[in-house]
Each structure stands twice: as structure tokens, then as C-alpha cells.
Amino acid sequence: MRKEKTVDFHIKWAWHAISRMYNIYAGQNDMTMSIGYVLLNIDMEKGTPATKIGPSIGMEPRSLTRMLKTLEEKGWITRVADDCDKRFVNVFLTEKGKKKRNFAREGVIEFNKRIFEEIPQEKLEVFVEVIDKIKDVVEGYTQDTRANILSLPFAEEFEI
């Protein structure tokens, strides 16, 4: 099977295109797409525990730690240790960070607005239904440590 006929090729290709678009947009404001996602996942009023940010956006702890350090150096966030347990750290946006977050939010809203203008609601609903099913299939494989995708009956059809 050619790569263009695999589901994952189209998902990855679309995600890379979206990522490039967001990085071009974010670059106008000294940001990256990843920074935008981090800022968007910090509660504007109450802050957010550092341990909750990474899992919500699929970022590894080491990468998140480096990014939080950079954002703190830029003055976009502050980290505050919990009064009762110093191991827990809440991340808060500074005024500068709130402006950057709003910039990222505007980019996401604009992209989604364009998608909603171009693609009918019923097709988007089917897309979300299909992508949710794909996530379920992926989670099934990753939860079953014995699963070996190469031993599936259809695997020989793929020339990967």
C-alpha cells in the first residue's frame, strides 16, 4: 500500500500543515505554536499546576520544564510553590503572558472560523466522530502491551 493510502499519512500531513501555519502566525509575536498551547492551558485567574499542563497538550515533562523556564525568563509566567507542599508548583500568567495568550487564542479562533466557513457542519461532525474512533483504536493498542501491529492480518498489505 502506498503511503498516501494510509490513514496516518493524512493525519500527520494535516497536522504538519496546521503546525506550520500556527508557527508562522506565532512567529509574528516572538512565540511558537508550542508556547501558544502552553499559554492557552494556563488558567488566567487561578493559575494551573505545572504537572497538569504537559498531559493536557501531550508534552513531555522535560520539554515542558525547559519551556516554563524560558517563559519565566521572558516574564510571561511566574511559578509559585504551594504553601503546604513545596513539591507542587502553580504556574500563573503575568500581564505580558496574558497578552501573549490572547494573541494565541485569536489565532486559534481565526483558524477555526475559517474551517467552519469552508466545511459544512455535518462533515465536521463526521470528521470528529471518525477522529475520536481513531483515537479509541490507538488507545486500545497502546493499552495492550501485547499488541503487535505488524502481526495483524492486514499488515502484509502495507509496503512500509
Q: Explain this structure to me?
A:
The chain has 160 residues and is mainly alpha-helical. The protein has a single domain (3-144), classed as Winged helix-like DNA-binding domain superfamily/Winged helix DNA-binding domain (Arc Repressor Mutant, subunit A, Orthogonal Bundle). Helix content is 61%, strand content 8%. It has six helices and three strands; from the N terminus they run ααβααββαα. It has a three-stranded antiparallel beta sheet. Strand 2 (77-81) and strand 3 form a beta hairpin. Helix 2 (33-40) crosses helix 5.
In short:
By secondary structure, this protein is mainly alpha-helical.
- Annotated CATH architecture: Orthogonal Bundle
The counted number of beta strands is 3
Order of helices and strands: HHEHHEEHH
How would you state the average pLDDT, rounded? Answer: 89
Q: Portion of residues in helices?
A: 55-70%
Q: Which oligomeric form is depicted?
A: single chain
Q: Which strand order spans the largest sheet, edge to edge or round the barrel?
A: 1-3-2
| Global outline | globular
Q: Which regions have little confidence, pLDDT < 50, spanning 5+ residues?
A: none
CATH superfamily: Winged helix-like DNA-binding domain superfamily/Winged helix DNA-binding domain
Number of domains: 1
Alpha carbon gyration radius: 19 Å
Please tag this protein with its features:
globular; mainly alpha; single chain; Arc Repressor Mutant, subunit A; 3-stranded antiparallel beta sheet; 160 residues
Secondary-structure blueprint:
Layout: H1 7-27, H2 33-40, E1 48-49, H3 50-57, H4 61-73, E2 77-81, E3 89-93, H5 95-118, H6 121-143
Antiparallel strand pairs: 1-3, 2-3
Helix pairs in contact: 2-5
